[in-house]
Specification:
Largest sheet: 3 strands, antiparallel
Shape: globular
Order of helices and strands: EHEE
Oligomer: single chain
Structural class: alpha+beta
Strand content: 35-45%
Strand order of the largest sheet: 1-3-2
Distance between the termini: 11 Å
């Protein structure tokens, strides 16, 4: 695919999803709080072919 990056967002307490994204090679970027007060984790992987 010709994309620069892929982003994923998981609920910060969803340990299973967070573990899967880490194993898939995604990098944990930050935990943040949305406007509604819910905490999320932001994951990203960059395309090394760009």
């Amino acid at each position: 695919m010709n994309v620069e990056d892929i982003n994923a967002y998981t609920h910060y307490q969803n340990a299973a999803s967070n573990k899967v994204l880490g194993k898939c090679g995604m990098n944990f970027m930050e935990e943040y709080t949305a406007e509604d007060g819910v905490n999320w984790n932001w994951w990203q992987i960059l395309n090394s072919n760009q």
